[in-house]
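Entry 14. Structure prediction run on the chain below.
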Amino acid sequence: MHIAIIDTGTANLNSVAQALRRLGEEPFISSDPAELDRADRLILPGVGSAAPAMQLLRERGLDTYIPKLTRPLLGICLGMQLLAAASTEVPKDSDTMAVATLGIVSGRVLRLKAEGLRLPHLGWNTVSHNGSAQFDGIRNGSYFYFDHSFALELGPSSAGITSYGEEFTSVLVSGNFAGTQFHPEKSGAAGSRLLDNFLHRFNPL
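Output returned:
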C-alpha cells in the first residue's frame, strides 16, 4: 500500500510518519499532486490556523486537488478543519469574519465556547462514536489527545462527538473523506487502532 502524507508546511509530519511506521507502513511525504497520485491513501495533517494553511494549499495547487480525490483521505487536527466549508480562525487584523476552506463537508469551524475552561483544549478527552468502520475495535468513550481552540460544529458528517464546554465534531466521515480533531499519532493504543482502521477497514463506496 502506498500512503502519502500531504506536506502543508503546517505540521510535524515526522510524528505522523513514525506512527504509520509502527503499523508496518512506509509513507512518503509530498506536496506535489503528481506524486500524490501514486498514493492509495492520503493523510492531511496540520497545526496552526486556517488562513495561512489555505494559502499554502493554494500555492501548491492542493486547494483544487484535494476536493476532487476519490481515494480515502484522513485529515488530522487542522487538516480535518480544512475539510469544512469555512473557518472563523482568521488573523486578528483581518477584515473578514471567516476564511473559505475546502468545502468537502458542510459546517463551519468555530471557536470553542469553553466558558470557565482553559483554551486551548489540551490533553485527553473522550469520544462518543457512531460505530463506523473508523472505530472498529475501539470502545465507545475511549480517550484521545487534543490540542485546539477551534472545532467543527455538529452536522451530518459527525461520526464522533466530544464535549469541552460544548459538543463538537471530533471525528468526521463523509464518503471517502475522514477526519479527527484529535491527534491519533499521540493517542496511544486507541489512536494507533484508528490509524490502522483508516488504512485497512475504511472502505467507502
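The radius of gyration is 16 Å.
Filed with the rest of this week's runs.
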